[in-house]
From TrEMBL:
Keywords: Membrane, Signal, Transmembrane, Transmembrane helix. This is VWFA domain-containing protein. PROSITE patterns: VWFA (PS50234). One of its GO terms (molecular function) is voltage-gated calcium channel activity. Residues 201-400 form the VWFA domain. The chain crosses the membrane at residues 542-562. Residues 573-625 are annotated as: Disordered. The keyword Membrane applies. Residues 1-32 form the signal peptide. Gene3D superfamilies: von Willebrand factor, type A domain. It comes from the Eukaryota. GO terms for cellular component: voltage-gated calcium channel complex.
Amino acid sequence: MDYQRNMVQGCFLPLILLVAVAYLSSTTWVSAEVGIDEGNQELNRLEDQVNTLKMAVEENYLRRCEFLSTCGGTNNCSRDSCQPLNFGDVKKYMTCKKVITNGYCPQCDSKNFDFTRSYVRQSNSTDTTSKDTAAIICSQRGLDAAFKSVCNETSHSRAFLGTVDGTYIHFPGSDRSKDECTAYDPRIRPWYRASTSLQKAVMVLVDGGALGSRLRTPLSGVFLTLTKDIVADLLNTLSENDVVNVITYNNSNATPLASQPKQVQYNLSSTDSTYHPEFSELLDNLSSSNKDNGGGSSNISFGITKALDNFKNYDTYMKIIIVFTVGSNINSQGNGSLAALVGKNVKVFVFKLPLYDDTSTPTEGFFLKELRSVGGSYNVLTSTEVKNRLLSIVPYFSFLAKYRASLNDSADYGPVYEDFEHNVDKVFPITKPVFANDGRLLGVVGLNIFLDELPGNKSKSVNDALAGRNGGKAFDPSKFALTAANASIYNDTYPTLCEDGVSSMPSPSEPDQVLCAQNYTRSIQDLACCGTCEGNSKFKHILLGVGVPVTVGIVALLVYFLHRHWKKGREPEDKYVWKGGGNAPKPEGAADPLAHNMTGDTSVEEGDHPKPEEGVGDDHLAHNR
């Protein structure tokens, strides 16, 4: 009997084991499928919330005159994150919310947030005296109602709007350290670029015959100096793997400032989002260009021909030419090079910076007619726009964002990044571009989702579902056609938002007008820190995603007990000694399932520094938000 029993066990127990493993594996597979479905449902819900915010921004723009008429004063000003108010005045509005670690006081397990209103931040390049900036801030004060509808004290997300002038509006409100505030520019963040860009080759043409020319008041300054500053800011908006070159042209030739276009590299700096040493050659050579060239005419045909040569190895890229010129004799030349652009699908943007003695009224002469025929863009820069250099070239950003949005209407997903405010490294943005009714880009709206805060297995489910997002928006040359129908010949780049409202609107630089006046002088820690602030944070991160490790553990236990039973059957009962000890094997600890690789300043917003292997990277560490 013992022999027969051993034979049965020897033959059938391995079969039983295989069946058990197959069953558990199928269960795990089904569980994974269910998890991804749950993750997709959650992402769909979050995308709906982003659409809600997008529609609110568009509606506020249409109601801008109404908002402008009531903007200003202590009851209608916007809170500046970098200009705190007296804590006694706002403490009753603050919510002490649990965080993994407070970046301003790492010993605390909570941070103060204002869920009653959004706060505003502005970049170094934002012109805080500009009526356009004031109009943007005032018109989007009505966004708070939409913010509250998607974010509350129990939400695992934060809402935001980054605008074309460099203003960043975020909810819930939170105060910031003054030394980290103004360096934050939303327009160079990966989440902003995720909704406003595609892979592209950009050739920047600079009018070499006018490098030393004085510009018309109130632009003031020298053409080369101002152009170099605009180009430097433009380069910082490019994305990883874009390519770029700068070409100067005059009346006899064109000179590339690098022998080959430069490929944009991943930013390795954790503290400087503008760290791109690959641009040094371009900017250094532009700075050292001959400033004695002033007032001479230039032939743009040489520049365009040289740009086309630089495009030869980039057939799958969107091709962009950006021209900075004083416009001398631009309409008196025949430009065969422009006609040569027909069918090549190269988008040309021409920005004119008028000379000090230029009193001409823009007319559509020969050059502009040719430019229109190939779907080009022409704009004359004004003093207001040049102070905010990226705002001065907003037609370029509008075109990129509009084309990207035309590919499909799905939301955009930026790279996973680190969050300073919560000291966690698994945050991802969901964004969408927002446009005015005339097609001009207003900005990018979105949500930052905190994976580590999601309850239960939802964190892993959402993380797994992320892999299937962001598809269908690669540049497709076969679907890119430029004709007179998509040309844009304007006299200025950013028309006043509301003529009636702006003329009587208070200045943003006046206290208690657009932005509330600062009246708090204590440290940021007094404002930001709350809750338990002794020793290490008591808020422990709960390990998620244990489905696979638990399955492995169950299989291990099954193998162990089957082996024990089989071994016992093979040995004489009087000689059997179990040597396994008193404890069965334990499942291995759950591994972190959340490392997620997604494509994707001198500051960082509520987090935003992805690991180098994760992609390009917002609050204190550097790249994203």
